[in-house]
From TrEMBL:
Residues 148-273 form the Nudix hydrolase domain. The keyword Cytoplasm does not apply. Its EC number is 3.6.1.22. It catalyses: a 5'-end NAD(+)-phospho-ribonucleoside in mRNA + H2O = a 5'-end phospho-adenosine-phospho-ribonucleoside in mRNA + beta-nicotinamide D-ribonucleotide + 2 H(+). This is NAD(+) diphosphatase. Coiled coil: none annotated. Its cofactor is Mg(2+); Zn(2+). GO terms for cellular component: cytosol. One of its GO terms (biological process) is NAD+ catabolic process. The keyword Metal-binding applies. CDD domains: NUDIX_NADH_pyrophosphatase_Nudt13 (cd03429). It comes from Candidatus Egerieimonas intestinavium. One of its GO terms (molecular function) is metal ion binding. Pfam families: NUDIX, Zn_ribbon_NUD.
Length: 279
């Protein structure tokens, strides 16, 4: 999956560190990222953007480090510097090396949070960046904000040698997926599984089995993957506002996963190759 970048080592602890010329600059504009031209994914250093961004070292915001290389968020440049280009966030689903794709989408998650926390949601005053941790606070009313992470479930519903595959309605992503949805206030993650399955395909499930989790920075989400069995009637009643397709698919018909970045597709592959035994 996209966060599995071993043997590279990702350090997300906050550092109050002044940016330097050789540090990596992650420059975003909405859902686009500035990269270097070339066959292999790479980002500019702060030194390479000095002429395009005034006061770049003072305005750079520390993000994280990978293998001792420091990454900073820098303001959007109004130019497209020579030897660089803008790419959509979806580009990083297939871009390699994986550690750099992971850096891009994780940095974008923080960029999105910072740009939507410039002003206090309580009183409207400008927010201030903490120098001790990754947090912003209001000097007027004291409101404190930490990065937003939304818990959600991915559900592999098993029916003998078949699994329920779906496609989203009205989404850019058109490939097969599993049932998914966000947790609601006051709800356990297991109850989220049952509710989302009921709402999207009208089924009941049993024997919930946690598989693994994944940070999914494309949507600010922490995903919890579950396999479960259909309980009783397997007739699908699809919510066509959420889904365009929902069907039972046999193991041999489950599509392959050429990207290898998502929990959804890994779960589909696990079922395809090994099946799921419930005891």
């Amino acid at each position: 999956m996209i966060q599995d970048i071993e043997p590279h080592c990702y350090h997300n602890e906050y550092q109050n560190r002044k940016a330097k010329a050789g540090d990596i600059a992650l420059c975003y504009r909405d859902r686009e990222t500035l990269i270097l031209e070339g066959e292999q994914l790479a980002f500019p250093t702060l030194a390479q953007l000095e002429d395009s961004l005034e006061d770049i070292y003072e305005r750079a915001v520390y993000l994280f480090a990978i293998d001792g290389q420091y990454y900073y968020m820098v303001p959007e440049t109004q130019k497209e510097p020579e030897g660089m280009r803008w790419v959509r966030l979806s580009y990083f689903r297939t871009a390699r090396p994986m550690d750099q794709a992971f850096a891009a989408v994780t940095g974008h998650q923080l960029y999105d949070w910072y740009r939507h926390r410039r002003f206090c949601g309580g009183c409207g005053a400008p927010m201030i960046h903490s120098q001790k941790e990754r947090m912003v606070h209001c000097p007027q009313c004291g409101l404190v904000e930490y990065p937003k992470i939304c818990p959600a479930v991915i559900v592999g519903i098993v029916n003998g040698d078949k699994i329920l595959l779906s496609k989203y309605a009205g989404r850019e992503y058109k490939k097969y997926a599993l049932i998914a949805g966000f947790a609601e206030i006051g709800e356990s993650i297991e109850d989220t599984v049952r509710r989302e399955v009921g709402e999207e395909v009208g089924l009941k499930v049993k024997n919930l089995r946690f598989y693994k989790s994944q940070p999914w920075s494309f949507t600010d989400t922490l995903l919890f993957g579950f396999f479960c069995q259909v309980d009783g009637d397997d007739t699908i009643t699809m919510d066509d506002q959420e889904l365009s397709v929902a069907q039972w698919v046999s193991r041999e018909e489950v599509p392959d996963d050429p990207e290898g970045i998502s929990l959804t597709r890994e779960m589909m592959t696990v079922f395809k190759e090994k099946g799921i035994a419930f005891t």
